[in-house]
Amino acid sequence: MLRRSRLLSLEEALRAQAAALGFDLCRIAPASAPPQAGERLAAWLASGAHGDMEWMAATPERRAAPQGLWSEARSIVLLGANYGADGDPLADLARRDHGAISLYARRRDYHEVIKGRLKQLAAFLLSRAGAGDAKVFVDTAPVMEKPLAQAAGLGWQGKHTNLVSRRFGSWLFLGSIFTDLTLAPDAPERDHCGSCRKCLDICPTNAFPAPYRLDARRCVAYLTIEHRGPIPRELRAAIGNRVFGCDDCLAVCPWNKFARAARDARLALRPELDAMPLAGLAALDDAGFRALFAATPVKRLGHARFLRNVAIAIGNSGEARLSAALRPLLDHASPVTRGAAVWALARLLPREELASLARAYAPREPDALVCTEWAKETQSEKK
């Protein structure tokens, strides 16, 4: 006689469906504000550590408390999708004539992949419950996903402020479903960092003034992705060959020993985006840039700022032959690109050759900041 299978609870059915949709973790938190999240956010914003990210300072009361975003919310379903990879994520940093792109960006934009699955899971939840409402978010609304993920037990915020999972290390995309249903919450995760500070010590720009505090204005990921203007001169050398993002503090975490490569075909790495020659990247026109990075997070950066990053990477390469790739950028329409090219050329060219370029370009340069770059590089001996 066949035994009748046990009926799944709503929460168990939700987790099973999440796994079927490709999520690696599914946990539940109450919709109450994570402890101290509001206070920490207010202090961080007051210090100016968010830099150009004005959206972080917009309606902070909604960001600090989930029910400030949606008063009807009673439970939050937190989802994690593994994006780990085989090999050393930092290996590309040694190839200084090639551009290093953050691991998360060398694949299809996770926003569209994860959001579609969240919508499917939310529809399943409401159908199974027979009532209720839900809203889905993937880094597109004032949601403090990392504190909520810790409250739900997906992982904990490490000393680098990113989420760390005991099962997947540093490599998780996060998404959330807010619902007016009351679901049984999971236990929160505790901090397992202990005395380790590897993530703090490896940071090339010293972006962590203290454990669990990030000054985004010094973070390479912020500088190469979010920052709109010229990258501060004192931080350019530390950027190395990173042209989009930085994985240093993530990759060095000891908990990555439990991580494994993602098996999700829709989030598969694109091999052609692995350590691309800087000369080729500098030669991309806008159409070529859009074609190469179609459907990836890199495309949202825009061509001009991408070339800014590439120029700085070339300046840090130590390869004088790459100066030829920089010269066309002196005529680029964007001043942020032209200024970076001036700085980079000053690191690669003999002083006499740089002075000759300055005589040709500086007098007709319309942008004050680019003029300043020329002046700083030609008024004194090259350092």
From TrEMBL:
<feature type="binding site">
    <location>
        <position position="196"/>
    </location>
    <ligand>
        <name>[4Fe-4S] cluster 1</name>
    </ligand>
</feature>
<feature type="binding site">
    <location>
        <position position="203"/>
    </location>
    <ligand>
        <name>[4Fe-4S] cluster 2</name>
    </ligand>
</feature>
<dbReference type="GO" id="GO:0051539">
    <property type="term" value="F:4 iron, 4 sulfur cluster binding"/>
</dbReference>
<feature type="active site" description="Proton donor">
    <location>
        <position position="139"/>
    </location>
</feature>
<comment type="subunit">
    <text>Monomer.</text>
</comment>
<keyword id="KW-0560">Oxidoreductase</keyword>
<dbReference type="GO" id="GO:0052693">
    <property type="term" value="F:epoxyqueuosine reductase activity"/>
</dbReference>
<comment type="function">
    <text>Catalyzes the conversion of epoxyqueuosine (oQ) to queuosine (Q), which is a hypermodified base found in the wobble positions of tRNA(Asp), tRNA(Asn), tRNA(His) and tRNA(Tyr).</text>
</comment>
<keyword id="KW-0479">Metal-binding</keyword>
<feature type="binding site">
    <location>
        <position position="253"/>
    </location>
    <ligand>
        <name>[4Fe-4S] cluster 1</name>
    </ligand>
</feature>
<comment type="similarity">
    <text>Belongs to the QueG family.</text>
</comment>
<dbReference type="GO" id="GO:0031419">
    <property type="term" value="F:cobalamin binding"/>
</dbReference>
<dbReference type="GO" id="GO:0046872">
    <property type="term" value="F:metal ion binding"/>
</dbReference>
<dbReference type="InterPro" id="IPR013542">
    <property type="entry name" value="QueG_DUF1730"/>
</dbReference>
<dbReference type="InterPro" id="IPR016024">
    <property type="entry name" value="ARM-type_fold"/>
</dbReference>
<keyword id="KW-0408">Iron</keyword>
<keyword id="KW-0819">tRNA processing</keyword>
<feature type="binding site">
    <location>
        <position position="139"/>
    </location>
    <ligand>
        <name>cob(II)alamin</name>
    </ligand>
</feature>
<feature type="binding site">
    <location>
        <position position="163"/>
    </location>
    <ligand>
        <name>cob(II)alamin</name>
    </ligand>
</feature>
<feature type="binding site">
    <location>
        <begin position="246"/>
        <end position="247"/>
    </location>
    <ligand>
        <name>cob(II)alamin</name>
    </ligand>
</feature>
<feature type="binding site">
    <location>
        <position position="219"/>
    </location>
    <ligand>
        <name>[4Fe-4S] cluster 2</name>
    </ligand>
</feature>
<dbReference type="GO" id="GO:0008616">
    <property type="term" value="P:tRNA queuosine(34) biosynthetic process"/>
</dbReference>
<feature type="binding site">
    <location>
        <position position="63"/>
    </location>
    <ligand>
        <name>cob(II)alamin</name>
    </ligand>
</feature>
<dbReference type="InterPro" id="IPR017896">
    <property type="entry name" value="4Fe4S_Fe-S-bd"/>
</dbReference>
<feature type="domain" description="4Fe-4S ferredoxin-type">
    <location>
        <begin position="183"/>
        <end position="213"/>
    </location>
</feature>
<keyword id="KW-0846">Cobalamin</keyword>
<keyword id="KW-0671">Queuosine biosynthesis</keyword>
<keyword id="KW-0963">Cytoplasm</keyword>
<keyword id="KW-0004">4Fe-4S</keyword>
<dbReference type="Pfam" id="PF13484">
    <property type="entry name" value="Fer4_16"/>
</dbReference>
<feature type="binding site">
    <location>
        <position position="199"/>
    </location>
    <ligand>
        <name>[4Fe-4S] cluster 1</name>
    </ligand>
</feature>
<feature type="binding site">
    <location>
        <position position="249"/>
    </location>
    <ligand>
        <name>[4Fe-4S] cluster 2</name>
    </ligand>
</feature>
<keyword id="KW-0411">Iron-sulfur</keyword>
<dbReference type="InterPro" id="IPR004453">
    <property type="entry name" value="QueG"/>
</dbReference>
<dbReference type="GO" id="GO:0005737">
    <property type="term" value="C:cytoplasm"/>
</dbReference>
<comment type="pathway">
    <text>tRNA modification; tRNA-queuosine biosynthesis.</text>
</comment>
<feature type="binding site">
    <location>
        <position position="193"/>
    </location>
    <ligand>
        <name>[4Fe-4S] cluster 1</name>
    </ligand>
</feature>
<keyword id="KW-0170">Cobalt</keyword>
<feature type="binding site">
    <location>
        <position position="246"/>
    </location>
    <ligand>
        <name>[4Fe-4S] cluster 2</name>
    </ligand>
</feature>
<dbReference type="InterPro" id="IPR017900">
    <property type="entry name" value="4Fe4S_Fe_S_CS"/>
</dbReference>
<feature type="binding site">
    <location>
        <position position="174"/>
    </location>
    <ligand>
        <name>cob(II)alamin</name>
    </ligand>
</feature>
<protein>
    <recommendedName>
        <fullName>Epoxyqueuosine reductase</fullName>
        <ecNumber>1.17.99.6</ecNumber>
    </recommendedName>
</protein>
